[in-house]
Design goal:
Elements: E1 10-17, H1 21-29, E2 36-38, H2 47-50, H3 83-96, E3 103-104, E4 107-114, E5 143-149, E6 155-165, E7 191-194, H4 195-198, H5 203-210, E8 215-218, H6 222-234, E9 243-247, E10 253-254, E11 258-259, E12 262-263, H7 265-268, H8 271-274, H9 283-311, H10 325-330, E13 335-336, H11 341-346, E14 350-354, E15 358-361, E16 364-367, E17 372-374, E18 377-380, H12 386-393, H13 398-401, E19 423-425, H14 434-449, H15 458-475, H16 488-499, H17 509-514
Parallel strand pairs: 1-2, 1-6, 2-3, 6-19, 7-18, 8-9, 8-18, 9-14, 10-13
Antiparallel strand pairs: 4-5, 5-6, 11-12, 15-16, 16-17
């Protein structure tokens, strides 16, 4: 039977989906392959552009959130930049490295098809052997991508040798709570809105939604905390109504990156501090040492908790978590508080309601303890369904393979899924600085595509991802977030070694042991 013949608008070696932080980093690192980037909206920036509120700020100081070759103008500034400053920085980076020319804006990927089985090759250097992943660039198309352009709604098809998916875990598909019959939002007489809808409001529209209204915010992560603060600020004065946060799981919050007068990085972001924690491939000696170091790890967590309980009115408002601080840090769930969050709570503008189950009634929310909360507006800070977003995009059988039995994407070096050929994923593992994490993996991916090193066998890659998952499961009950914060330096070491770089990045042993690591430590060695 003759192979199906399809005419493509364009066939390129590298395709990239998404122009957020990961997408523009990938485009820059793979620029020598003239990639084509598909961005569904009219702007770069990803969640910083489309999921931010007026009060949204970076969760780390700006010097810890920058590209290795594009520092902030005032990189020693310890403040937390606003989302608008982040967008300015990202636009500056894209313009400086001429990345925008690769991006097709208003171009939504609506279908991906695997076509690698249409081609055969007689080149034994390119054809993967049994159990091997093979090179990323094989000399023939592997993926076909259907792209719908806006506003024309025309669909065009492209073909690529490798596809880099950078759509991230957040945005696009909100995670919505499920209710029993006749207890959902259809019986509620007020307004229900997810954070993704709220983020589309301008400042005036948001003020109008909140001012003088009884607002319930469901959630207690960063978005929920920012929402509650904005609600309190909109309801100042005698006529203002309080905002009630409905909380299922309490997480540790931090007022600033100082603990009892010590910089926070000393506890988790140096090579010496991460020595206390388990890591993959750590060897026999460390396997013996780690149980002995457990009391030290617990003491560090208790030390931080003691400061937070002293500094913040967590006990007063019933907001002291039952789990250790380390578990939130190890799952990248530590939130920086707005400066006025608890001062608004002290004024009665922010209230708190603990509830594991809730549902709607005509006038607001009802809880499992049979109490009711009157509300005019219910804001759902319930997160996003990143797994569904990517499963909807990929064809079978790859859609079913994307997550393992534990519900996590098994990504080798946080980038390559061993069971999905010629595809890479950037932005799906988390750390204290997701920008630094994404950029380093894009550098690794570029060198892999250029054939400067080879991947291990599929079996070895799956073994590595299993080891990492076992470490996360031991460290935190919230392991499904796929956060590497307690062994991020070791993760970077192994990436550097595969690229042929030195794993130790500082100028002297003291700094190597006791200074924090950021993107400036991972400038290119092979320029």
């Amino acid at each position: 039977m003759a192979c199906e013949q399809i005419s493509y608008l364009e066939s390129s070696r590298v395709g990239i989906i998404g122009a957020g932080i990961s997408g523009i980093a990938a485009a820059k690192q793979l620029s020598h392959h003239n990639p084509i980037v598909f961005e569904a909206t009219d702007s770069i920036g990803g969640v910083w552009k489309h999921c931010s509120f007026a009060s949204t700020k970076l969760q780390t100081p700006q010097c810890d959130f920058e590209f290795s070759d594009y520092p902030w103008p005032e990189r020693d500034n310890s403040s937390f930049p606003s989302y608008l400053e982040i967008l300015d920085y990202l636009h500056g980076y894209a313009k400086h490295f001429d990345v925008l020319k690769y991006i097709n804006f208003n171009s939504r990927v609506v279908e991906i098809r695997y076509i690698g089985d249409r081609e055969t090759t007689t080149n034994l250097d390119v054809a993967p052997g049994p159990g091997e992943f093979g090179p990323l660039l094989r000399g023939h198309p592997v993926w076909e991508v259907a792209v719908e352009t806006h506003p024309s709604k025309t669909v065009e098809r492209y073909a690529f040798e490798v596809l880099v998916v950078c759509i991230g875990k957040y945005g696009d598909i909100p995670r919505m709570p499920v209710f029993p019959p006749n207890k959902g939002q259809e019986i509620f007489g007020g307004k229900v809105m997810h954070t993704i809808e709220y983020s589309k409001l301008d400042k005036e529209a948001a003020q109008e939604l909140l001012k003088g209204k009884k607002v319930a915010v469901v959630g207690y992560k960063k978005s929920a905390i920012d929402l509650a603060t904005e609600c309190a600020e909109a309801n100042q004065g005698a006529d203002g109504q309080p905002c009630t946060m409905v909380i299922r799981t309490i997480h540790w919050t931090v007022p600033a990156y100082w603990i009892w007068g010590l910089p926070f990085f000393l506890f988790y972001s140096t090579r010496s501090s991460q020595f206390l924690h388990e890591r993959p491939n750590q060897g026999l000696l460390r396997n013996l040492l780690c149980p002995l170091l457990s009391p030290v790890r617990k003491a560090v967590s208790k030390f931080i908790e003691s400061y937070l309980v002293w500094k913040l009115p967590l006990v007063k408002y019933g907001l002291k978590p039952d789990h250790p601080f380390e578990e939130d840090y190890a799952s990248c769930q530590m939130a920086i508080l707005p400066e006025n969050f608890f001062s608004e709570a002290d004024k009665g503008k922010i209230l708190f309601k603990r509830a594991s189950k809730w549902w709607f009634w005509n006038g607001g929310l009802e809880f499992e303890d049979n109490t009711k909360l009157e509300a005019d507006v219910v804001l759902l800070a319930s997160g996003y369904d990143g797994k569904k977003k990517i499963q909807d995009l990929l064809p079978e059988p790859f859609s079913s393979l994307i997550v393992d039995l534990s519900g996590v994407m098994p990504l080798y070096r946080g980038t390559i899924h061993p069971l999905i050929p010629n595809m890479a994923f950037v932005g799906y593992i988390e750390s204290v600085s997701n920008l630094h994490t994404a950029e380093l993996r894009c550098k690794w991916l570029s060198r892999l595509a250029d054939g400067l090193f080879k991947l291990p066998s599929i079996e070895k890659m799956l073994e590595q991802t299993t080891k990492e998952m076992e470490i996360m499961k031991k460290t935190t009950r919230f392991y499904k977030r796929h956060c590497i914060s307690t062994f991020s330096i070791n993760h970077a070491d192994e990436i550097c070694e595969e690229m042929g770089w030195k794993s130790w990045r500082k100028n002297n042993l003291f700094l190597e042991a006791f200074a924090p690591f950021n993107s400036q430590d991972y400038g290119d060695e092979d320029k």
